[in-house]
Amino acid sequence: MRLSKYVLPLLREDSSEAQIASHQLMLRAGLVRQVAAGIYAWMPLGLRVLDKIAGIVREEQDRAGAIEMLMPTIQPAELWRESGRYGAYGPEMLRIKDRHDRDLLFGPTAEEVVTSLMRSSMNSYRDLPRTLYNVQWKFRDEIRPRFGVMRGREFLMKDAYSFDLDNASARQSYNRMYVAYLRTYARMGLHAIPVKADPGPIGGDMSHEFIVLAGNGESDVFYHREWDANAKYELPDATDDSAIDAFVAERTSHYAATDEMRDESREAELADQIRTARGIEVGHIFNFGTKYSESMGLKVQARDGGLVAPQMGSYGVGISRLVGAIIEASHDDAGIVWPEAVAPFRVGIINIRANDEASAAVADKLYRQLTDAGIEVLYDDRDDRGGAKFAAMDLIGLPWQVVIGPKGVERGTFELKCRATGKREDLSYDELIARFT
Ligand code: ATP
Ligand code: MG
Ligand code: MG
Ligand code: MG
């Protein structure tokens, strides 16, 4: 992409809209713009990051055996009356009336919709186990939307739903997601800790929130040092259920809990091995048994011929929140430092003298050759001061920057800077090509 033909609305000054670094940087780097309170437009650069994150989430859901579908954003109140949640959900639900005076809502989550769909799609034990997922916009009329996309009212979520014949099978579906989530966050360069969360009315131990540590996170967590960022563990194969079960049993033996789930006596026993921190909830997995299948009449034929209500679970990843969380975890004074896997472009080319013919020729050629090789490149070909270009490139945080100017053209070497380490190298044109292709 040539910057001279792109839409990248950078801000020179801090915005009074934002109180935390990630929100400030998302506005300054032109990733998002607020359209109404808690409702954001994803500008071109931001959309690329959102898509990268969703792509990783999809790959890991697919790897774990989940099947993608797409449910609508607007849902009929009818379904929520069936489950009994229409009244219970409260003012976070955006309620809408259509022209026929029918009650609709903008979905805050989709248990009711997926259960109603499976009512007519699943008939027997042979149709189980299955896990379906979708990546779709949700709406929750948060009382205090804040921190930009981290607590929006409209936000993008991956929500998955599992259907199993019995509790043992439901646990396997749950454990697969536990592992898939750890792999998902690790691929984004995040250290996420699965902490025991409130399992709700069915009890048991099948609910975990995935928390990324951050000073301005809204969740308090308490965890054993086995969950420190430098504590190493190897993830099992995504579908090897016995390896997965052993892994989850081992990892969950190390204490980690939300505020509501603290076990003070266990913390006292573990004493100085316990850490206390704040963090951002980037995912939540949950088993709720037959709550929706029973109330909404989803039944399948069991092996013995009788009818049975499937055990269900749901599994959410806050995709749009992750954009903020990743920036919160990875930035410096100059701007964002994208991990390669989610960077909007991998390489930025800066032509420091756009009106110098020789420089422009080399920069154009490098841009074309890398782009043709499938490398995502943002090429700053604008006629602007070098200093402003360097600052803009640091702000938007692409992993690699190539600087091209008359001196380099003369010498035949060009500067390559790594955004994360700040390390600079001088490479020949061919070495540059070889580095990225
Ligand atoms: P929170 O505690 O932050 O309000 P939640 O527990 O209400 O989140 P869940 O119902 O567990 O959220 O939804 C699954 C995931 O969706 C969350 O883990 C979070 O990453 C994301 N999410 C929830 N609410 C928002 C929001 N208002 N803006 C952005 N992402 C959100
Ligand atoms: Mg909430
Ligand atoms: Mg929560
Ligand atoms: Mg939650």
From TrEMBL:
It catalyses: tRNA(Pro) + L-proline + ATP = L-prolyl-tRNA(Pro) + AMP + diphosphate. NCBIfam families: PRK12325.1 (NF008979), proS_fam_II (TIGR00409). This is Proline--tRNA ligase. Its EC number is 6.1.1.15. The keyword Cytoplasm applies. The keyword Nucleotide-binding applies. GO terms for cellular component: cytosol. Catalyzes the attachment of proline to tRNA(Pro) in a two-step reaction: proline is first activated by ATP to form Pro-AMP and then transferred to the acceptor end of tRNA(Pro). SUPFAM superfamilies: Class II aaRS ABD-related (SSF52954), Class II aaRS and biotin synthetases (SSF55681). Residues 33-339 form the Aminoacyl-transfer RNA synthetases class-II family profile domain. It holds the Pfam family HGTP_anticodon. It comes from the Bacteria. GO terms for biological process: prolyl-tRNA aminoacylation. Homodimer. InterPro entries: aa-tRNA-synt_IIb, aa-tRNA-synth_II, aa-tRNA-synth_II/BPL/LPL, Anticodon-bd, Anticodon-bd_dom_sf, Pro-tRNA-ligase_IIa, Pro-tRNA-synth_IIa_bac-type, Pro-tRNA_synthetase. It comes from Alteripontixanthobacter maritimus. One of its GO terms (molecular function) is proline-tRNA ligase activity. It is found in: Cytoplasm. Belongs to the class-II aminoacyl-tRNA synthetase family. ProS type 2 subfamily. The gene is parS. Keywords: Aminoacyl-tRNA synthetase, ATP-binding, Cytoplasm, Ligase, Nucleotide-binding, Protein biosynthesis.
